[in-house]
Amino acid sequence: MLARVVTFAIDGLEPRRVTVEIDVRPGLPSFTIVGLADRAVREARERVRAAVLNAGFEFPQRRITVNLAPAWLRKSGPGFDLAIACAILAAAGQLPAEALERFAVFGELALDGEVRPCGGALAVAEGARRAGLSGIVVPLERVREAELVEDLDVAGVGTLGDLARVLRGEARPEPSAYSWPRRSARHLDLADVHGHGGVVGALTVAAAGGHNVLLSGPPGVGKTMLARRLPSILPPLERAEAIEVTRIHSIVGAYGGDGLVLERPFRAPHHTISPSGLVGGGTAPSPGEASLAHRGVLFLDELSEFSRAALEALRQPLEDGRVTIVRGQRVAILPTRFMLVAATNPCPCGHAPSRRCRCTEADLGRHRRKLSGPLLDRIDLLVAVHRPAREELERAPATSSAAERDRVIAARKRQIARLAGTSATCNAQMDRALLRTHLALEAGAERPLYQAYAKGELSARGRDRTLRVARTIADLHGEERVRRGHIVAALGYRHEVEAVPEAVA
Known about the structure:
single chain; alpha/beta; Ribosomal Protein S5, domain 2
């Protein structure tokens, strides 16, 4: 007896169709799984056997061979359990095999026959639609996630018995009214900030154009406080962006399955993170923090404490918006379109250039070598954060997140309209060709840029990044043409972090 069931493996972030083939024939009882399966998949033999028996079905006491095709694709994780159980029961005549032809099946089995959720339901649902299947069977907890894919019949099951009733055309179980607790709404607000008007203006520019920013200053002046409030002024996710974010977080198990992820990600890894943990990797390539921050913010606090290898690994993701990982003959392309926000002290003790600094020249040299020139050249805004005066701390806040967010959204709308029909959605994503097309410089506005380039203060890449920032400053002011003042303000962010322009935004 032979039966086939369709399921999907997650390869990086992409769903790959897998056909579960079952051969049941007379012979000494055995249960073999072949097809480049990892340990979690091979252990499915014991889970499936116990689940089938405890759900009230009969487990065939015959020679059972399970083939996961294609054989060259590595399969990992417990999501194959339900498909293997379905195929065995269909081959034994206990489930209608013809009903399985229109469904993909995905889920983990408990020993009592309960169907447990596992990561990647959204990606599997997208794969099922692309494969031309009309439906998918997933655990009840993943129904809302799979239903994000349009034109797909999603059946949620809580047990193997529920699955049998669905395939026989009986009533489907309703998803539980329980809602996975969403992350609480961000309560961090720029209204909490006192005495950092120039830095808040810089963060508004960064948010409006999607630019990378480095905050430098002594300990305790508010660098981390300011960075953690940046997401509060970012524009909301578009639906396509939210689908991308939800898929990534679902695959890595950082998502509960209750609809779309509505907030832009904010990831703040510890400085001991490895290069593969930061940009992705592993024997089976999986997303790192850079991909988890896709469409959001990657915050690196104490930047100089990160390993140089980890920081250098960020260079390609920052430039290309994606990272390519090659393992053996496998290639995984992971999206990394994030805003980099970093904070650092000016020296190891944090007090340079004041008299309190006790760092030696060797200490300063090591500190500077951690922050390589090519990495800093990929950061658009270099912002100094100074210790506020007492009078500034006592003043009322200059602005609030709601006010700045309105300005950012208005600037982003101008960019989206301008860049319609291109791959870019904000100024930071413009390549050189788009920059030449959409810059719209006022006559003579570029002269300060020529002077800075002639003095060696800018690289060719830095020149383009300055122009993108100037375009964003013009958008914040609602102006179609980039003026000389916008260029000068943008240049102020490209120089060494010694002073913060107060009137750029």
